[in-house]
Amino acid sequence: MLEEINYEYFESVDSTNDRIKERAREGAAQGLVISAGTQTAGKGRVGRKWESPKHDSIATSILLRPAEIAFESIPTVTVVAAMAVRDALYRLYQLDGKIKWPNDIVLDGKKICGILTEMEMKDGKADFVVVGIGVNVHNKDFDDEIAFKATSVDLELAKTGSKIVRGSRAELTKAIWESFKKYYNIFILTEDMSGLKEEYERNLANIGNRVRIEAQENSYEAIAKGIDNSGQLIVEVDGKEQIIRTGEVSVRGIYGYV
Ligand code: BT5
What we know:
Elements: E1 6-13, H1 16-25, E2 32-39, E3 57-64, H2 76-93, E4 98-100, E5 104-107, E6 110-122, E7 125-136, H3 144-147, H4 153-160, H5 169-190, H6 197-202, E8 210-214, E9 219-227, E10 233-237, E11 240-244, E12 250-253
Helix pairs in contact: 2-5
Residues 15-17, 39, 42-45, 48-52, 59-61, 103-104, 111, 114-116, 132-134, 136, 146, 150 line the site of biotinyl-5-AMP.
């Protein structure tokens, strides 16, 4: 169970995931959260970069010591974290984000959040897990390479004409980890998504629709059906069900990024 959450904030770090790893190796306890005003080397998956311009976005990571969960269940933690971010954006700002499996939250077809889960092993077991979350909050524009597919809390709130004119990074960070605690503790009970699957699928982008599975060597179309109990994506290809594992592929709608 995740109980206490302890928050630390730094103006600038290389990567909040790397700071958590360092502290974990020094023996820090589960529930430590490190957030930063900016990251000089923010990381996406498989060596990609994550942009976190100064004071515009949230970069925050938590340390988990999931002694109780099996190694195979660890990738599911990303799926759980995505639910938490969606929930926090909705609770605070009524922003109705969708989860782009496995690690993005999207609004109006654009990415507002990315999640990177990393793990370190010791004696053949998971010693600790780091879940890192990046959310665009005050960003008004983005670098050319991502401008077509990125959005922020403030940009989305402006579209809805909401009375909440600006999100607050500290408030949202806290709301995300409080939601994470709620979902993670449900996940821990069964070590799978059985208690969360229904809510997850209600918020899954592209459910029932055609998606493009972009694997390393080939790319093909499928229909997204939902997730299984381990948080893997179920798709249908030529009338047959297939399971897509996290980390293996990118899944896109056929008309663009989402
Ligand atoms: C992710 O990877 O989306 C994971 C991002 C995790 C970031 C957090 S911030 C706190 C913690 N510390 C870290 O160092 N990392 C974590 P991926 O699915 O691979 O997507 C990366 C891609 O998203 C990039 O290649 C860009 O195309 C795009 N991208 C980069 N910065 C973005 C931004 N601010 N908003 C939207 N898209 C972005």
